[in-house]
Amino acid sequence: MPKLIVHQDKIKNIENLIKTCPFGAMDINGGKLEINSACKMCKLCVKKGDPGAVEYIEEKGVSVDKSKWNDICVYVDHVNGDIHPVTYELIGKAKELAGKIHQKVCCLFMGEDIAGKAEDLLYYGIDKVYLYESHRLKHFSIEPYTAVFEDFIKREKPCAILVGATTVGRQLAPRVAARFKTGLTADCTILDITEDTDLVQIRPAFGGNIMAQICTPRNRPQMATVRYKVMNPPKKNSSKSGTIVSCHIEDSKLESGIDVMNVYEKEKVKTIENAEVLVVAGRGVKSKDDLGMIQKLADLLGGEIACTRPLVECGWMDAKKQIGLSGRTVRPKLIITCGVSGSVQFASGMNNSEHIFAINNNPEAPIFKVASYGIVGDIYEVVPQLIEKIQKGREA
Amino acid sequence: MNIIVCIKQVPGTNKVEVDPVTGVLKREKVDSKMNPYDLYALETALRLKEAHGGVVKVISMGPPQAKEVLKEAFSMGADDGVLISDRAFGGSDVLSTSYTLSQGIKKLDGFDLILCGKQTTDGDTAQVGPELSEFLKIPSVSNVTKLIEVTNENITVEMDMQNTVEIAKINFPCLLCVDKDIFQPRLPSYLKKMATKNKEIRVLSLNDFEDKNTDNYGLNGSPTQVQRIFPPESNGDHELWAGDGKSVTTKLYDKIKELKFV
Ligand SMILES: Cc1cc2nc3c(=O)[nH]c(=O)nc-3n(C[C@H](O)[C@H](O)[C@H](O)COP(=O)(O)OP(=O)(O)OC[C@H]3O[C@@H](n4cnc5c(N)ncnc54)[C@H](O)[C@@H]3O)c2cc1C
Ligand SMILES: Cc1cc2nc3c(=O)[nH]c(=O)nc-3n(C[C@H](O)[C@H](O)[C@H](O)COP(=O)(O)OP(=O)(O)OC[C@H]3O[C@@H](n4cnc5c(N)ncnc54)[C@H](O)[C@@H]3O)c2cc1C
Ligand code: SF4
To answer: Which domains does chain A show, CATH number per domain?
Structure first.
């Protein structure tokens, strides 16, 4: 296993060396530098510290036989058979990854009365859908769903498993990873694969302030969760291909200590996640009444209004309309931000949007780094004029 | 009720920046604090204790400095604190963190309920709770937004499942990951702080565990490896239009027209 050795004699400036560690993992103990358990092995101290002061020693750990683990599996996320669209996005990514290592893509689908829905997956160029049906799988519950996953993994030995970072996926994937004592990388935004079939997983951490590249070099299956609207869905083929494999698991393995008593639909509202066009109000909007012009622009563009966190905090807008780290992640085709500064927390929730326009009167505003088109101007001038232009254009 | 709350010490700010040239993380202060999401888990535990009696124990895995967050929990009303700390636990990913926590929890005298926060502000994976429940072989649910009923055998909760709301009854012992805003966390009390100033914190290390095999802990026990850390990149194409209101609006209009949005 890799380890770090501190060469005290090569340390020129102990304070500076301590500062290179982003995780506060270095202490001075009796005048000597020590690395404590907060160390994340990021090796920054090796690379950026005094030369030779911290030495990294790699000892190869025992790895599984990777050749026994093949194909990329996508977990089919659904509620009562309605497949979550993140599933298709993952299929798109899985096909690309599998192509690079000349392997296949399969899906794992568990629930009750879902065989009909499984057919739909066959339009996306996958090889197999492994289908587990039981009345005990009607609602998601962590123990039976993990039991099915275990059965599937033992049977098919997939090289990698991609799971949507939905409310279900974010519980199920870790439980499965722990059962197989394997690695799970959360909320990946970029996925690639090496010839050696190791996934290269890139994810934001520290609230989107840094990106980390993570791999699982010694264990299989490799597991990753990916948020909705990060990857691109594949085109639907005109005809079906691949097969559905019905799998059986005894009911006795599907015991649960959780009794799902009731599931209600939340009121179906137009969500900002589904909108193709979003117009976003930020603190540049001076009063609640002024939200009217933002709404009007959104309506004219056939879109929805969204906002930054301060507008939720002051009670002007519903929390469901908030974009960002502590709000929703959106990826519309068009997004126009009005009086939004562009904090990292906000930007992390929208920077995958296709066309980003930003209106802000401060040319230094960080939003302009995110925007494809920045408009330096006053929203009280630009927005009404734009509304007028659109209306005139329609009349003409 | 015997409740364990898992709390983590995290950097005081997550406003870290990576110097794009040197690749070094720049931090304003190296302060640390209790993971803010864990305050909600602790508050939930304290409310349950107030309503049903019992003991609230806080447990944290981390370097010796992590004692500070346990002390903070005392000043909010936690009865007992346990620190899990050992050089051998350094570099743990989620799997080995969860396994280590499970080994530590097995050394305590039982529990009915374990509470975790939604996620942390540093590693930010939201995976520790579910993985811990696997190692303890107990049921778990996440996204808990409300407690509905508590009996001797089970707890009924409401969960936010994105498009649906689910009500579920979970048998004890079990683990819940609570959402932010389940309850408003109380402020630490100065009196409690003073009263617990010298309260002993039990420290568990590898030697205290049932499983002492170093292969299962720290870096050895971590299947994931952080290969590199870098700053997020901003989007490729940029145009910045300045000028009088009229001309920039015209440019804006023409562009969205060109892109066929109007
Ligand atoms: C842990 C954490 C999580 C967070 N999560 C989120 C989140 O999910 N979403 C979120 O949005 N924020 C979040 N925040 C808050 C975030 O850091 C910012 O404070 C927030 O996004 C700022 O909102 P804003 O851009 O509307 O306001 P400000 O930062 O105040 O920006 C207002 C902008 O409007 C411009 N402006 C003013 N008047 C005009 C005018 N007349 N015409 C044009 N421009 C004008 C100003 O130049 C300025 O740039 C989070 C913070 C933390 C610490
Ligand atoms: C940049 C970066 C990226 C990372 N990415 C990954 C990754 O993708 N996969 C991976 O396996 N590891 C990853 N790690 C390592 C991971 O952050 C640590 O293993 C950490 O110990 C646990 O994860 P977390 O902070 O995400 O906790 P979360 O899973 O977000 O925490 C959820 C809850 O678990 C409890 N909890 C968490 N940690 C502790 C603790 N130490 N003591 C007591 N209770 C605790 C708290 O109640 C908390 O609210 C990453 C680390 C860094 C620095
Ligand atoms: S490897 Fe990274 S975390 Fe560990 S001591 Fe060095 S700089 Fe700190």
So the answer is: 2-58 (3.30.70.20), 66-254 (3.40.50.620), 272-395 (3.40.50.1220)
Higher pLDDT, A9 or A23: A9
Give residue B159's identity as a one-letter amino acid code.
M
Q: Is the pLDDT of residue A245 over 80?
A: yes
Measure the CA–CA gap between A38 and B236, rounded to whole angstroms. 36
Please report the pLDDT score of residue B219 as a whole number: 86
B110 interfacial to chain A (CB closer than 8 Å): no
- Residue A325, pLDDT > 70, answer yes
Choice among A190-199, A258-267, B116-125 with the minimum mean pLDDT: A258-267
Residue A300 DSSP class: H
Contact yes or no for A260 and B252 at CB 8 A: no
Identify whether B243 is part of a domain.
no
Region class of A3: left (phi > 0), else alpha (psi between -120 and 50), else beta: beta
Ligand 2, residue B123: give the atom nearest the CA: 17
Distance from CA of B202 to the nearest CA of A (A): 18
pLDDT(B25) > 80: no
Kindly state whether residue B111 falls inside one of the protein's structural domains.
yes
Total structural domains within chain B: 1
pLDDT digits (tens, 9 = 90+) for A380-394: 999 999 999 999 988
The predicted model gives A46-73 an average pLDDT of: 86
The pLDDT value recorded for residue A210 is 82
Q: CB–CB of A272/A331 below 8 Å? A: no
A48 touches chain B (CB under 8 A): yes
> Tokens 């802990």 identify what position?
B217
DSSP-assigned letter for residue A83: E
- pLDDT value, residue B30: 59
Average confidence (pLDDT) over A215-219: 94
Asked whether residue B85 is assigned to any structural domain, the reply reads yes
Q: What is the residue range of B125's domain?
A: 2-216
In this predicted structure, the answer to whether residue A239 has a pLDDT above a threshold of 90 is: yes
B24 touches chain A (CB under 8 A): yes
Tokens of B221: 């026990």
pLDDT value at residue B198: 93
Residue A295 CA to chain centroid, in angstroms? 29
Are the beta carbons of A117 and A95 closer than 8 angstroms? no
Q: Is residue B229 part of a domain?
A: no
Interface test with A, best of B19, B93, B144, B227 (most A CBs within 10 A): B227
Supply the DSSP string of A148-183, one letter for each residue: HHHHHHHHH--SEEEEE-STTHHHHHHHHHHHTT--
> What CATH number did the domain enclosing B88 receive?
3.40.50.620
Helix or strand (DSSP H, E) at A234: none
User: Is A294 close to ligand 1, i.e. is its CB under 6 Å away?
Assistant: no
User: What DSSP line would sit under A259-284, residue for residue?
Assistant: EEEEEEEPP----TTT-SEEEEE-TT
- Vertex B36 angle, CA B34 and B42, to 5°: 80
